[in-house]
Each structure stands twice: as structure tokens, then as C-alpha cells.
Amino acid sequence: MANKDTIFSAPIDKIGDFTFDERVAEVFPDMIQRSVPGYSNIISAIGMLAERFAKPHSHVYDLGCSLGAATLSMRRHIQQEGCKIIAVDNSAAMVERCKLHINAYRSDTPVEVVEADIRHIDIDNASVVVLNFTLQFLSPEDRLVLLQKIHDGLRPGGILIVSEKYVFDDEQAHELLIDLHHDFKRANGYSELEISQKRSAIENVMRPDSIESHRTRFSDVGFATSEVWFQCFNFGSMFAIK
Q1: What is the pLDDT of residues 170-226, one digit of tens each?
Q2: Is 90 annotated to bind ligand?
Q3: Are 126 and 59 spatial neighbours (Cβ–Cβ below 8 Å)?
């Protein structure tokens, strides 16, 4: 059973920026399930998409892999010979636990877990690339550079899957979706204090984009098509195909 997330349950005098440290890694499965609507559906469908798009003797990348949920989902589904999954995260605490999770399950598809900055990873011979709630933590100027590198490293017909929190231009719709997200967190047992302190901690390190901004960037770097394939409140996932 996952450890319960109580990181923001007590009043904090000075709230610092949110980091994926040892404390977060320890409670991450509980935190993500109770904070991100539709997370389980996204993880399951990433595996299905990988099964469809993974090519023999190609690389599959999970960039910002955290504890390896998307990696494990893809490894369960990929049937192609010679595929290798490369899972990357810059948090030592996440990488350590990710390796334990990966090693707990046997599979014909090898996984390499790498502790590194995803901006410095070479993308080569890729058929599938996943950014699962990762891009929003990069500076806006780094996002286009990374997406260009991913596009250039994908085989023709390869897929990029990008899950994110979204912002919306219409103020009324934007506020309603934020309120619904907070209702979701309350329904999952988070207190008003926890919701408020977590929001304060994360607002300086996570800067979400609109769906339209994502579409524009995908087009700018050369993807042939892109679409939202899942959305729940202000969270969702898109694909872009080369």
C-alpha cells in the first residue's frame, strides 16, 4: 500500500518551491493519484499507444519518468523485438525507486533507467517518446528546443505523448476547471490547507500552457498531426505524430 501524502498537512511558515525530493518520492503514488484526475487512465492508454507505435529495434523514451509508471505500462504492452525503453529523471530519489519498481517485474523488453536532465539526453532511433507531466516544469524557452530534439530523433510515423495541466483563455472556463480540480482533491481527502500550501509551493516551478500553445509548438517543430486524446478538467494528454 502506498504511503499517504501528508507533506502539506501541517502549517508551513515559509513555503519553498516544490521539489521532487526524497519526501515526495516516498508518497508520490498517493500524491499523483489524489491530485491528477484521470491519471490511471492516462497511464493505461500510454501502454496501448506504445503497443501500437513501437517499432522493432527502436528506442522508446520516458522523459521525466518519476517512479516508472508509464515505463511499466509501456513494457507490459510492447511486443516488438529489439525494443529498448530509456527512462530518464533528474531526481536521484525518483531514479532509485524507479529502478526497484522496474527490477520487480520480468520482461523481454529491457529498460535503462538514467539519472539525467532530459534536456541533455540524445533522442535517437525513437518510435515512441513520452513526456508525462514533465514539459510544464521546464522553462518556456526550453520546451521548444526539447520538442525539436524529440521530433528530429523520432522515426517517420513515430509518436510523442505529452500529458500536462492546461490553462484556458476564457477566464470563466479557466476558473471553473480549477474549482473542479480542487473539488476532486477535496473528494480525495485533501484539506483546504493542503490544497492552498501545495498550490503556493508549485506555482513558481510549474507553468502550464494552453492546448493551443501545445498545438502551435508541435506544428512549429514539424509534427504532421496532433490532437488531445484525453482530458479531465484542466488536465489532459495529447499526441503528436511525425
Answers
A1: 999 999 999 999 999 999 998 888 888 888 778 778 899 999 999 999 999 999 999
A2: yes
A3: yes
89 assigned to a ligand binding site: yes
- Write down the pLDDT at residue 23: 83
38 in a labelled binding site: no
* Cβ-count burial 193-206 (b if 16+ within 10 Å, e if not): ebbebbbebbeeeb
The rounded distance, in Å, linking the Cα atoms of 52 and 55 is 9
Q: Does the annotation place 199 within a ligand binding site?
A: yes
Q: Is 65 annotated as a binding residue?
A: yes
25, 26, 189 from 12: Cα distances, Å:
20, 19, 19
Distance of CA 109 to the CA centre of its chain: 21
Residue 118 labeled ligand binder: yes
The secondary structure of the chain in percent helix, strand, coil, rounded to multiples of 5, reads: 45, 20, 35
Crossing angle between the packed helical segments 69-77 and 39-53, to the nearest 10 degrees: 40
Tell me whether residue 83 is annotated as binding.
Answer: no
* Kind plus residue range of the DSSP H or E element containing 184: helix 171-187
Does 41 show up as a binding residue in the annotation?
no
Question: pTM of the prediction?
Answer: 0.93
Q: Is 66 annotated as a binding residue?
A: yes
